Structure to design on (179 residues):
């Protein structure tokens, strides 16, 4: 473990300057700088003091962070089939509701209609991967084909329809999450 790097990460995370951390630990700014660059090694008691000043415990300080999943495969997806609306929604980033954006892959069978979304704060983006869709945004209607996209602030009621004879597939991203 890179102790200096970990110290700096926590210091920056808590919004402390090197001087502020040094003052709290009764050390010099230069010594903190040396520790963060691994140019000096603190005694065990000094390290424990610094860890305490950083508002953490030795166990948390030395714990290796669990790597965040950044690649998602088909088996990670969650899907919902709505036979009544002739749609398949695939959440291609599981648990995206905790993020600031939520991407889904929406498949609309012929005659399929997405759920109508009410006005809300945020923005939406969509890219037609396959087929033809109709975007209804307030009272306006737009027809989009494979390779075309849409983007708008979510200030009006809106939904998608498939007026074609074949499945339409759309990558649809909302911020904040709303699906």
């Amino acid at each position: 473990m890179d102790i200096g790097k970990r110290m700096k990460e926590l210091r920056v995370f808590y919004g402390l300057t090197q001087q502020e951390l040094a003052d709290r630990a009764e050390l010099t700014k230069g010594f903190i700088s040396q520790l963060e660059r691994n140019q000096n090694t603190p005694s065990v008691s000094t390290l424990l003091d610094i860890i305490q000043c950083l508002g953490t415990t030795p166990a948390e300080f030395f714990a290796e962070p669990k790597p965040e999943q950044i690649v998602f495969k088909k088996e990670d997806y969650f899907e919902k089939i709505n036979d009544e609306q002739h749609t398949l929604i695939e959440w291609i980033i599981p648990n995206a509701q905790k993020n600031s954006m939520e991407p889904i892959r929406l498949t609309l069978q012929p005659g399929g209609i997405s759920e109508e979304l009410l006005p809300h704060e945020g923005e939406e983006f969509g890219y037609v991967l396959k087929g033809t869709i109709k975007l209804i945004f307030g009272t306006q209607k737009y027809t989009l084909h494979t390779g075309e996209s849409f983007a708008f602030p979510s200030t009006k009621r809106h939904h998608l329809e498939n007026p074609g004879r074949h499945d339409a597939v759309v990558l649809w991203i909302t911020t904040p999450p709303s699906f």
